[in-house]
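Hello support,

Our group uses your service weekly, and this is the first time we've seen a run hang past the timeout. The protein is Si:dkey-6i22.5. I'm not sure whether the cause is the sequence or the server load. Input pasted verbatim:
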Amino acid sequence: SVKMEEHDTPGETEDGKQKENESTEKQSDTAGGGEASGKAAEETTARYNRLKLFDKVIQKSLNRFIENASFKVFSSKFRPLYKENVKRMEEIHNQFTVVLQKSIQEDIIKLMEEGKIESKFQELDKLENEAKDNPEPAWRPSGVPEQDFCSFLMPYYQKQKAYMKLELKKIQAENAALAERVRAGREKIAQTEQCISTDVDEWNAKVIDFERVTSSLNPVDFFDE
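Update from on-call engineer: The timeout came from a worker crash unrelated to the input. Re-ran successfully.
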């Protein structure tokens, strides 16, 4: 038997390579898009993981609570009715568990809305993200209340001390400016008093001179002439 060998023509080979390149590019784009969508999904999951965990815990607790109100426990409390009509008792129990579960869920939703649980979880996510960028270790209690109390209050008092020093400098500068104004005012008053005293002395001297001149004249001789 003779085996037939197939040979690709140059045109067919180039077309095949082009198709392979296009396929590779599409796969790369798909992978890139998959990575981007994966990151977005991770961010969304990280954002709502606390709320989902909270809902999961609440739902699990609710289920356990409903399990404790099983038909066996429920029927044991109403033994005469159970013996009289078991089917009716099952219907009452089913209706009771449905109403109870619905009522508890409504109360939980109301408490979450009043306590703003979802916003609190978002704040926790925000604090967690900020803590990732902070290289400094978070504060932890040392076990010594006095030391923890001092470590908490000392930074506050140091800030207050720095603030008081700054305010004291401002007040001192204002007082110095006021003291300079008072000194300048006193000097001006002293100069005014000195000028008044000089004027008074000159006026007194003139009055004395005038009295001496008038006393040296003889009024009779003056009128006789």
